[in-house]
Amino acid sequence: MSSNGNEGVNAAKRAAAYAAVEAHAGEGMRVGVGSGSTVVFAAERLGQLAKEHGWTSVVCVPTSFQSQQLIVEAGLVLSDLNQTPELDVAFDGADEIDGELNAIKGGGAAHTQEKLVAANAKTLILLVDESKDTGALGTKWAVPIEVLPGAWVVAKAALVKAGATSVVLRMAKAKAGPVVTDNGNFVLDAAFGVIAAADVAGLEAKINNIPGVVDNGLFAGLASEVFIGRSDGSFEVRRRE
Ligand SMILES: O=C(CO)[C@H](O)[C@H](O)COP(=O)(O)O
Question: Membrane spanning segments where (predicted)?
């Protein structure tokens, strides 16, 4: 472990992201770019590889305002799902993963767009540092749920009925009010306790069935591989069986 905690975490994120991009990216690929601090390293490496190898036809689809900026800053070609509806690969971070490669996402309130991009990619590769590898979803994180602004009170009540033990409207840090997603919606963070891998898909569907819910941050069965970085710069790859 590095003497500086942040340095260690960043080394882990970089190790996972660089290794994943080196293993999966190539000329002509249509690439989904996720959101968050780990994806910063993925966009950086993709930009470096494109320059080094003279790749001119890599096309990237963002999942948020942040990732749109990352794509532009890396000198890559920006597209969207309307122009590029089929992607070869998507790289994204995660807040928690379980042993079956299910994930909780949405720490950056971008999970709706992230799921949309992931669902239209042949392969979703998740990039995490080892702290995200908790064994079971819900161990450290609540489930982020994007809701229509006019539905947050009723959706909150419905989530409690559906078994949530706590539901919190996510508040902004530098604004007096709630976090507003890139789609103009609010985010509820709903705790359901530890979620067994076998129950993730059912809970994902149950939450999305609540009127006013746009999408939730449970990603059941979407990831093909997870690259787990460590603070010493090493990494491990887990693949779906
Ligand atoms: O789901 C996300 C954003 O909505 C992020 O991918 C997730 O929060 C992980 O972020 P980080 O790489 O900063 O830990």
Answer: none
Q: Atom 6 in ligand 1: which residue has the minimum CA distance?
A: 93
CATH 3.40.50.1360 intervals, the chain: 5-133+221-239
pTM greater than 0.90 (yes/no)? yes
Cα distance between residue 92 and residue 89, in whole Å: 10
Residue 91 near residue 39 (C-beta atoms within 8 A):
yes
Question: Could you tell me the end-to-end alpha-carbon distance of the chain, in angstroms, rounded to an integer?
Answer: 31
What Rg, from alpha-carbon coordinates, does the chain have?
A: 17
Which architecture, in CATH terms, is 143-216?
Answer: 2-Layer Sandwich (3.30)
The Å distance, Cα 167 to ligand 1 centre, comes to 20
Determine the atom of ligand 1 nearest the C-alpha atom of 39.
Answer: 12
105 within ligand 1 shell (Cβ under 6 A): yes
120 lines ligand 1 (CB under 6 A): no
Ligand 1 within 6 A of CB of 92: yes
Nearest-angstrom CA–CA distance, 69 and 156: 33
Where in the chain do CATH 3.30.70.260 domains reside? 143-216
Q: What is the pLDDT along the chain (241 residues), one digit of tens a residue?
A: 334 569 999 999 999 999 999 999 999 999 999 999 999 999 999 999 999 999 999 999 999 999 999 999 999 999 999 999 999 999 999 999 999 999 999 999 999 999 999 999 999 999 999 999 999 999 999 999 999 999 999 999 999 999 999 999 999 999 999 999 999 999 999 999 999 999 999 999 999 999 999 999 999 999 999 999 999 999 999 999 7
Answer whether 111 contacts ligand 1 (Cβ < 6 A): yes
Q: List the CATH code of the domain at 5-133+221-239.
A: 3.40.50.1360
Instruction: Provide CB contacts within 8 A for 24, sequence distance 6+.
Output: 89, 91, 123, 125
Is 7 designated active site?
Answer: no
